Amino acid sequence: MLLLLAGLAATVQAAELSLGLGADLVVDPAGQVEPLSDSRAGFGGALRAPLRIELGQGAALRVALASSLSRGHDRVEWQQYEGAVTFYSDDHWTLVNNTSLTVGPTVDIGRWEGPKPYVGAGVGAALVTHHHSFSGDAAVLLDPEQGDLSRGTHIDPYTRQVAPLAELLAGVRIPTSGAFAIEVEAGYTVSFLAEAALKKARPELDATRVAHGLDAMRIGLAAAFPL
Fold first, then answer.
1. DSSP state for residue 199 in the 8-state scheme
2. How many other CB atoms are there within 10 angstroms of residue 164's CB atom?
3. Are 211 and 34 in contact (CB under 8 A)?
4. DSSP class of residue 132?
5. Over the stretch 94-124, which tens digit does the pLDDT of each residue have?
6. Is residue 140 classed as helix, strand or coil in its secondary structure?
7. CA gap 100, 98 in Å, rounded
8. How many of the other CB atoms lie within 10 Å of CB of 108?
9. pLDDT tens digit string along 181-205?
10. How many CA atoms lie within 13 A of 59 on its CB side?
């Protein structure tokens, strides 16, 4: 195992590397998992930092760190009257933060000079946080023992979980007269978020955010610099 790790480290050290910094527009058009759930992350923006490790013959290994923030909605359920009645809310707004790390191959299409299309795929994991803003009937979830509800800085009940994800991507790398390239890239990421308990909600209500899919489409620009 040590020899394998040493060989991999030597390969990475000898390979050509480039590091990018980009910004994307993201949208989760739908995430319906259950008949009564129409959760979606909505529209937002993202930053990403892809590291490209050249393997030769137009192939590369790509490691990408990305973080997005979007506003949408989800479905939250809770129990009252000693569990005899289930209530739900799906008209509150939800701020979704998705921070992911993916690894996978990319392949250039064509061997010509100039703008070069490429395709790729990746797998990894995401840390996803749903911040909620509850009012009306859903305000019963707010726990006054966990903060001053009258303050604007109070954080409403939220969920945080780690989930696996997979991604497909395609783009065009455009060389410039400087020491960097411009990448125009689109991607589609698929993830499934299991049901999660709400943190900071009144514990006797057993509040949960129902399961839903997180299917994010993105398009954006990045500048890639050789290392």
1. B
2. 11
3. yes
4. E
5. 999 999 999 999 999 987 788 999 999 999 9
6. helix
7. 6
8. 17
9. 999 999 999 999 999 999 999 999 9
10. 5
